[in-house]
Batch of 2 targets.
Target 1
Amino acid sequence: MLNSVKIGILGGSGYGGSELLRLLLFHPNAEIVFVTANEHAGKPVSAVHRNLLGVTDLSFSPTPEDLSQLPEVDVAFFAMPHGAAMSLVGSLPKSTKAIDLSGDFRIDDVDVFEAAYGRPQTADSLQKEFVYGIPELFRNEIAEAQFIANPGCFATATILALAPMIKSGLTTGKIIVDAKTGSSGSGAKAAANTHHPQRANSFYAYKPFTHQHLPEIEQCLNRVGNFTSSLVFMTHSMPVSRGIFASCYMETTSALSNGEARRLFEDHYADSRFVRIVETSPDINWVKMTNYCDIAVHASGKTIAVFSALDNLVKGAAGQAVQNMNLMFGIEETTGLLFPGTNP
């Protein structure tokens, strides 16, 4: 284990980069060497992220086309728009690990990736070196990895909700997932559908049957167990700034009681500090600003309902990335991440 992990953050001006900074500045084993943002190069980080005023003296630097020009670090976090990391990761020094928060390296099949993201996979050979970073499922692989594809926020909430059922082999037929996200999932740049007067009291579905996280979810569940169900995945925009809430419905081959269903989840996540099994329903308020995913499960005969909630910027992005970093460097998995949410 390294006492101090030297860190670079590429793309530090967005919400994902902001959360990485917020978490890593207080991580006892983290030393942030540089943070890049082309549009803010030369500016103090605290001038862009006002919540960090008085916390750091770091300034943004530009992102070079060849990352070997940057100071050497142990790990580089990529918090850049989709498509950016695939052109940059290959120029990292061989000794530098990487954690990518975009979707560039999450999907193994090139054709599936290109259909989901509408762009060519220009780093196919590198993609094969990436490990999908859900610690609760792939802890050992992550610990040995050079490169991590950090999962999407919808994908994390859905996979954690479904994994115990898929691993049990009890599901049959169609699985329906009805998932909602807050406005920060759309990123920091303003757009018509994220403009406050439009978003504040609005609720709508988007990307029916075509959300880019769907193939990522299916790929992961196929690794968890014999995933033969068809998955209907519908996403919605809700009028909050942070949070993912996923409602998942499925049929089982035999009837389960509420107690049996709950024990299945408790056993599956017994060693997972950041998954909490709760009564009745999770609430996005209780996971906001945390690395927790709260899950509730209910059974009615052969019908199962699973609800999951997480913060899309923490467990759905930066927090999970830090959790992966801890595993990659032999640091206790929960380091820098064990804090509760706010009330209210």
Note: Residues 154-311 form a domain with the Dihydrodipicolinate Reductase; domain 2 fold (CATH 3.30.360.10).
Target 2
Amino acid sequence: MAGARRVNTGIASAGAINQWTERLVGLDDLIAPVIVGCSGGADSLALLALASARGLEPIAVHVDHGTRAGSAAEADAVAVHAERLGVEFHAERVDVAAGPNYEARARQARYLALEQARAQLGASAVVVGHTADDQAETVLLNVLRGSASAGLGAMPVVRDGIVRPLLELRRSDTEAVCATLGLTPLHDPSNDDVSLRRNWIRHEVLPVLSAGAGRDLVPVLARQSTVLREESEYLDALARAAWPSDGERQARTVAAMPLVLARRAIRIWLGSPPPSFDEVERVLAVARGDVKATEVAGGRRVWRTAGHLHADPRN
């Protein structure tokens, strides 16, 4: 990890960006400093500036996946922006092998690098620059995956130590922040590749849907995600109360629960990796005594004995 302390120049606290600073969310309980994952795009640069204006003493961390020629130069460009904003900068590199599910594995490696930087630098949290546009795209991605209401709730403001302060701002807002402060965002050419599903949704699906609806669907989808997430969290609480984790898991209890709660209770119990709909249904069949055992995601085996459900990794 390379970096140096900077003295804040005050550019990020310019009154011109107050209209956006006031719309940040999820920051009230944070203690300075915080880690800002900064790719150099408009969203993360704007977040860096806005977090500085809020007095959070952000530390910019650029994570290089090493997959493109010129990626090292991108880190240098972010360092220049960080210096201009008067914030500390660190560069990290991760190696992600090519192959299936690359995007998910790269994202996991990136978040791990940011969390390690947080721990090493004594920061209180990792903050990232997802906007309302990203939220709307995530909702549609999860629709295509067949996600239940929890998935359609998309990204919460805070989850697993990651804070998303820009979820009430649009991509146009972050571009405006950068323009106001004279920051030139980097352009990631991979964001133009519509063979990647998120880019396809961003560049082709959402514009067509918005045109057909006769209105901008991003705020509609973002608002829907908030409502569904709140409802999902409430149903999760009911499921936990109906099938508590203390003691043994009685099969007959979950089998007798209303189906919507029983499915949630099974999902919560199995944890990560999350089970598919069909896997949850098979576990419920075990709970009812229709079958003796089944296998679920992660190579785990679920079985019933003496009226109780058990789940262990398969040997």
Note: Residues 147 and 153 are 10 Å apart (CA to CA).
